[in-house]
Design a protein that fits this description.
single chain; about 675 residues; alpha+beta; Immunoglobulin-like; six-stranded mixed sheet
Length: about 675
């Protein structure tokens, strides 16, 4: 009786465990081939199931029968083992070609997916029963992840560019030319090295995206120290330079390629200049493209083969360098403290001729007075050799020229005047002492300042298409559009925004200090009053009274100043906004006599758009804390310009970019010429 009871008990337990296994398999999607099923009591069970985020899924299948799965980073992938199957089933998850093993006895079969996962392979008794590839998508929605070169017995190689999902729409480029080679999403491109040498520059292309393969067999080829990549950053764009030693590379079949992350945002390299034995290829990348310039690199090709590549190198400071840096900073600070008092009285010394262009008064002719400012006199003159017209600004104080020149040389913006240099003029004080005076040299603009130019259109005569014509006294007749008026205000706001970013206040924003070129590009000038930041510090009553008396006696306070600045003590960034509002009021009044009294709000000019008038009212608010920032002013003007003529606004931006490039080329010429000459313009 007991043996029979034991037999029935064993059968009951077996049936119970079978039902559990069958219940576990009921809601899962299990995968296996013909070798992966097990028979028990006449039933076949699939052995392995796949869940993604705890949801059963099915694998995708190619036309050739290969399995794959598209995933996202940090997705939770789980393998489910049917308990009714053979316990000798094991799966390997490959990550960077290193596998981790899961079995039916594993406690945790969850895997958090990352970009390095590539495939999963399952076996039973060392026999493969299932394999599928994993395509893991990036967080930034980019397609390519990395590149791998796999050699095959010396006859060929596989160039694999790993993608974020399964697709066959990938092309292979050789030296930037497309090759007609089919793409295998699992293995990549097969290259027969007898027809396509491996030492070419290869890239994968998918839609607009590019990824480059690391060049092969370049170690110790002698070119690594003769080819480099440089980058210069400017206001609107970055300049990439690929430089190589032309003397060391004596080969006529030399070319340089710029490797880019995007096909549409890959600028063309041009041979801009040759410096001594170095040949320089340059390309400009707009900062609005949102692509890091460090994602580009230069490739040197000789006779069709890649011999070197150059990247932007990051600074590598070791602990020793940091220690030396701290010691050096301490020494500099000590010297600075000792010499501050003696240097304070002679802060603006004569500018070195290696920094700026310098000419003598004898090299100019036809000098004539153009106008008189608050503390300077403006002349025009002609260069004897080139017959080019320039402007000479003779300041009352010697220090003004050097101070303004140093400040202007530190500013790089298309709407801020670029100095040409200085003029050297002997000034004899006594019979035995001859001192040298320096005066600032500036470009000459035929339309002169905005105040003079805009007054030609008063009283305004408005024609069709918002075009204004000059008055009858102006010959020849000129015209200006409403778009031009708004663009002038936008350019001034752009320059003031840049100055605020540099922590500089101009302190004399007015139409008389804005020059205008023939193509209506504005240039802010006259930086004699400019200072670093705001003037908000508390001062003693004695010094405050002294400053007030000095300001009123010298009548040195501009009439455009707001109330908080009329005492000549305080000045804020919001004060700059107030002066900008007054400038716009005069601009859209066509220099009709502006009331600089404290009438608020001002009368809306007849030809001023409502959006511009509202901005003027906000800018000249007597409460400085209620005024908008200069960035907000620029944004409002940008919106108005886009609404008026979006294409013309884009042309205006391109004109400013061309102006920056023109200044860069001119500075490059100056830096070369000053090495051989000290007296020139």
């Amino acid at each position: 009786m007991k043996p029979l009871m034991l037999l029935l008990l064993c059968i009951a337990y077996s049936i119970f465990f079978m039902l559990i296994g069958a219940n576990d398999a009921h809601n899962e999607v299990f995968y296996a081939d013909k070798n992966s099923t097990l028979s028990f009591g006449g039933y076949d069970f699939y052995c392995i199931g796949i869940r993604l985020q705890d949801i059963p899924i099915k694998l995708n299948k190619t036309l050739s029968g290969e399995l794959y799965l598209n995933l996202k980073v940090r997705s939770l992938l789980r393998l489910m083992f049917n308990k009714a199957c053979d316990r000798n089933i094991a799966c390997e998850i490959y990550k960077n070609d290193i596998s981790s093993r899961l079995t039916t006895e594993s406690d945790d079969t969850h895997t958090s997916v990352d970009l390095t996962h590539s495939k999963i392979r399952c076996t039973r008794n060392s026999i493969e029963i299932m394999k599928f590839h994993m395509f893991v998508g990036r967080d930034d929605n980019m397609f390519f992840k990395n590149t791998i070169v796999s050699k095959l017995n010396g006859t060929g190689v596989y160039l694999q560019c790993s993608g974020s999902y399964h697709t066959e729409n990938v092309k292979l480029l050789e030296n930037q030319k497309s090759l007609d080679i089919p793409y295998n999403p699992f293995k990549g491109f097969y290259i027969d090295i007898s027809r396509n040498p491996i030492n070419r520059f290869y890239q994968c292309e998918h839609n607009d995206e590019l990824i480059s393969f690391k060049l092969q067999n370049m170690a110790n080829n002698g070119y690594e120290n003769k080819f480099k990549m440089l980058m210069n950053s400017y206001t609107f764009q970055s300049e990439i330079q690929c430089v190589f030693d032309d003397q060391a590379i004596k080969n006529t079949h030399v070319s340089v390629i710029l490797a880019c992350p995007s096909k549409s945002k890959c600028p063309e390299l041009t041979n801009r200049a040759n410096r001594r034995s170095h040949k320089i290829y340059t390309a400009f990348v707009p900062k609005s493209s949102n692509i890091d310039p460090k994602s580009y690199h230069c490739v040197l090709i000789i006779n069709g083969n890649t011999v070197a590549e150059a990247f932007l190198e990051e600074a590598d400071f070791s602990t020793t360098y940091y220690a030396l840096l701290i010691i050096g900073a301490g020494l500099i600070l000590t010297i600075f403290v000792i010499l501050t008092k003696s240097l304070r009285q002679n802060n603006y010394n004569k500018v070195s001729t290696t920094d700026v262009r310098e000419t003598r008064i004898e090299e100019l002719n036809n000098k004539s007075k153009l106008g008189v400012g608050n503390s300077s006199t403006i002349y025009t003159a002609e260069i004897c050799k080139t017959k080019k017209c320039i402007v000479i600004k003779e300041s009352v104080r010697k220090s003004h020229c050097t101070k303004e020149l140093k400040l202007l040389k530190s500013l790089k913006h298309p709407n801020i005047i670029t100095p040409l240099g200085v003029i050297v003029q002997p000034e004899q004080k006594t019979c035995f002492n001859v001192q040298i005076r320096q005066h600032l040299l500036l470009p000459y603009y035929q339309k002169t300042c905005l105040e003079t130019y805009i007054h030609k259109f008063y009283p305004p005569k408005r024609g069709g298409n918002n075009i204004f014509h000059t008055n009858e006294a102006t010959v020849p007749e000129e015209e200006i559009t409403m778009f031009d008026l708004v663009s002038i205000a936008w350019q001034v706001a752009s320059a003031l925004e840049y100055l605020k970013g540099m922590e500089i206040t101009h302190r004399d924003v007015a139409m008389r200090n804005v020059l205008i070129s023939n193509n209506k590009v504005c240039k802010i000038t006259d930086f004699e009053r400019a200072k670093k930041g705001e003037t908000t510090r508390k001062i003693s009553i004695e010094k405050k009274i002294k400053e007030i008396l000095k300001a009123h006696m010298s009548k040195d306070i501009p009439k455009e100043y707001p109330n908080e600045c009329l005492k000549g003590v305080y000045y804020y960034y919001s004060s700059e906004v107030y002066c900008f509002g007054r400038l716009m009021l005069c601009l859209f009044s066509f220099m009709k006599p502006c009331d600089y009294g404290r009438i608020y709000p001002p009368i809306q000019p007849e030809n001023c758009p409502k959006a511009i008038y509202d901005l003027i009212v906000d800018c000249i608010n007597e409460n400085r804390k209620s005024r908008p920032s200069i960035s907000s002013c620029k944004d409002v003007l940008s919106t108005v310009l886009k609404h008026m003529d979006h294409d013309e606004f884009l042309k205006l931006k391109q004109t400013l970019i061309d102006e920056v490039n023109r200044n860069i080329v001119e500075e490059h010429f100056v830096s070369q010429y000053t090495q051989t000459s000290h007296l020139f313009l």
